[in-house]
Amino acid sequence: MKRRSGRSSRPPRLPRFGTGGPLVSSRSADLLIARAVRRGGPWLAVLTATALTGAAADLLVPAALGRALDAVVRTSPDLPETVAVAALLAGLVVVCDALGVLAAGVSGARAAQWLRTRVVTHTLSAGTGMTRHLAPGEIVTRAGVNVEEAGRTPEAVVTAATLVIPSAGSVVALALIDPWLAVTLVAGLLLIVAVLRAFMRKTTAASGGYQEAQGQIAGMLVGALAGARTISAAGTEDREAARVLAPLPRLRAQGLALWRLQARAGVQAAVVVPLLEIAVLAVGGLRLSAGDLTVGELLAAARYVVLGAGLGSALGYAARIARARSAAQRLEQLFAVPPPAYGSRPLPPGPGTLELRDVTVRADGVRLLSGISFVVPGGTCTAVVGRSGSGKSSLAAVAGRLADPEQGVVLLDGVPLREIGREPLRRAVGYAFERPALFGRTLGEAVGFGLPAHDENNDENTVPPDTVRAAAVAACADPFVRRLPLGYATPVEEAPMSGGEVQRIGLARAFAQAGRVLILDDAMSSLDTVTERQVGRALTGSLADRTRLVVAHRVTTAAQADQVVWLEDGRVRAIGTHERLWADPGYRAVFQAPVFQEQEAS
Predict the structure, then answer these.
(1) How much of the chain, in percent, has pLDDT values that exceed 90?
(2) Alpha-carbon distance 184 to 188, whole Å?
(3) DSSP label at 354?
(4) Residues 6 or more apart from 99 whose CB is under 8 A from it?
(5) Please, which residues have CB within 8 angstroms of residue 562's CB and are 6 or more apart in sequence?
(6) Handedness of CA 493, 498, 499, 502 (dihedral sign)
(7) What residue ranges in 461-599 does DSSP mark as E strands?
(8) Is the pLDDT score of 563 beyond 90?
(9) Are 160 and 200 in contact (CB under 8 A)?
(10) Which member of 81, 546, 548, 572 has the greatest number of CB atoms within 10 A?
(11) With 0-12 CB in 10 A as exposed, 13-18 as middle and 19+ as buried, what is 583?
(12) For 20-29, 423-432, 510-519, 539-548, which range has the lowest pLDDT when averaged over its residues?
C-alpha cells in the first residue's frame, strides 16, 4: 500500500557545510582537475606531443653535441653530419616550444570553458539552494577567477609531467656513460623531489586561504553595491569601504605566505641544483683524469646533469597546480550543492488544488516553518499574513517548489510536487516577487520570459503578443508600456520604470506563466492603492480560474481573499475568513496602523 504520510518524502541529505561552502575532499578536486585536463580536446594531444617530442629532443641534444665535439677533437670525417644533427635537434626544440605555447593556450581555454559552463549551469539549477550557502559575490568569484586558475591545469600538468622525462632520461644516459655519474644525479634528484612535495602541500593550503579571502571581499562588495543608495543616503561610504576591505589584511598575509613559500623553495632549489651540477662534474672530472671518460662524454654529462636538475624548474608549474587544486576544491563546493530532483509524473486534469501536509522547513539549523497543514481549494484565493519573520516567504517558496521542505509534502491536484516533471510544474505555477528581476531583451520578452512558444515565421522562440498583452493588462502594466515610444519592443535596460512599474511587469510575467497556481510573495508592496485595487479586481476576475496564494501585508488584500492563513513563529495560528479573524486583536495587530486599516477595510 502506498504511504500517504508527508514524512515519507524527504529531500536528499545535504553535504556538511563549512564557512566557504560544503566540505569536499581533495580527491574530488583532483578528479575535477583530471576531467578538466581531458576537456583540452585535440589541442591537449598537440600539447602532449610537442612536450614529449621536445623532451626527447632535449635528451638527444647533449649526446649530439658530445659527438660533434669528439669529431672536432679527432678531426673525424663525420664532422659535418654530426654538426647538422645537433643543429636539427636544436631547431626541433625551438619548434616544439612554439607549438607548445599555442597548444597550452587553446587547451587551457577549452578547459576553462567547460568548467565555467558546468559552474553556471549547476549554479542556476541549484537556484536558491546555492544562494542559501554562498553569497552571490562568492559564487561569481568562483565562476570567474577560480575557473581561470583551474583552467590553466592542462599546461601545468602536461609540462610538469614531461619534466620527468628529461630527468629520468638523464639518469639513464649518465648510467650508460658512467654509473657513478648516474648515482650522483639520483641522490640530488631525491632532494629536489622532497622540496617539491613540501612546496606543493603548503602552497595548496595557502592558495585556498588567499582565494577564500578574495571571495569574501567580492561577496561583501556585491552586497554593498546592492545597497549603494542606502550607503550614499547615510553618508557611510568610508565605513562601508572599510567593511568590504576588512579581509584585505588576511589576503595580504596569505599572498605574502605564498611568496615566502615560493622564495624559500626557490632558494632551496637554487642551492641544491648548482651543488648537484658541481658534484656530477667533479665525479666526471675524476673519471676523465682516470681515462674512463672522453672529453665529449664529459661535455654530454655536463649537459645531462643540467637537464636532470631541470626538475627544479618545476616549482613554477607546481605552484600553478597547487593553485588549481585549491581552486578546484572551491568549485567542487559549488557542485556539492545538489539541484532539486524532479520526477516524471504528468499533472492530471484538475482545478489547481494546493495542499500542504505537515510541512517543516529549516535553513542552517533554524526552523522557519513547523507542521504547516492546510488546503487551498482550486480556483480560490488564500492570503498568508503574519508579522515579519513568521515564515510567509518560506511558505510561498515551498508551495511552488522553489524550496523543498525538510519534512512533509506539498501536493498539486493530488500529486506531490517532487514527483512532477520540471516543465509541467513550471508551466503550472507562476510566481511574482517583491523585487522582480526582469530577463529578456525587451519588455515584451520580460513578460513572456519562460513561456514555450514558437513563431512559424521566425527561428527564435517568441510568445504570442496577445498572451503578453493580456497579462500586462491584468497587471495594470499595459498603459505605461504603450506610452513608451517602442512599446513592448522597448529594451529592458532603456525603459524608465519606477519600482511599482517594475513590480507590475513582474506580476504580468507571473500571470502569463501561471497555468493553475499563482503565488504572489509580497508582489504588490510597491503599488499605489488604486493600482493595487485594480490588480485585486483582476485576481478575482480574469484570473479567478487560477488558484491564488498571496503573501499579504495590507488589509485590503487579505479582505479580498476567500480564506486567510495566519502565521506566527513559523506555525499556523489560525485559518479562516478575514472578517472572522478581524475580531481577534492579535490578528489586527499584524497590520500596521490598525485604526487606519480598520477604516480602509470598512
Answers:
(1) 17
(2) 7
(3) E
(4) 46, 50
(5) 377, 380, 381, 382, 577
(6) negative
(7) 517-521, 547-551, 563-568, 571-576
(8) yes
(9) no
(10) 548
(11) exposed
(12) 20-29
Q: Which helix (H) or strand (E) holds 376?
A: strand 366-376
d(C-alpha 602, C-alpha 582), whole Å? 11
Q: Amino acid identity of 146?
A: N
Half-sphere exposure of 106 (CA within 13 A, CB side): 14
Question: What grid cell was written down for 264?
Answer: 624559500
Alpha helices by DSSP H, 290-411: 295-309, 314-335, 392-399
Of the candidates 237, 262, 409, which has an alpha carbon nearest to the alpha carbon of residue 323? 262
Q: Determine how many CB atoms are found less than 10 A away from the CB of residue 364.
A: 8
Chain length of the chain: 602
Tell me how far apart the alpha carbons of residues 582 and 587 are, in angstroms, rounded to a whole number: 6
Query: How far is it, in rounded angstroms, from Cα 61 to Cα 153?
Result: 29
Residue 73 has pLDDT above 80, yes or no: no
Rounded CA separation 225/599 (Å)? 40
Q: Residue 311 has what DSSP assignment?
A: G
DSSP codes of every residue in 65-132: HHHHHHHHHTT-TTHHHHHHHHHHHHHHHHHHHHHHHHHHHHHHHHHHHHHHHHHHHHHHHHTHHHHT
Residue with cell 516553518: 369
Amino acid letter, residue 362: R
Pick from 453, 454, 353: which is nearest to 411 by CA? 353
Contact 279, 191 (CB under 8 A): no
Bridge partners, 504 (sequence order):
none
pLDDT over 70 at 463, yes or no: no
At 329-351, the pLDDT tens digits run: 888 888 888 888 888 888 889 99
Higher model confidence: residue 71 or residue 314?
71
Structure confidence by residue, pLDDT tens digits, 409-434: 999 999 999 999 988 998 899 998 88
CB of 116 closer than 8 Å to CB of 147: yes
pLDDT in tens, 105-142: 888 888 888 999 999 998 888 887 787 778 888 888 88
pLDDT reported for residue 269: 65
Bridge partners of 257? none
pTM of the model: 0.69
Instruction: Give the CB-side neighbour count of residue 287, counting CA atoms within 13 A.
Output: 22
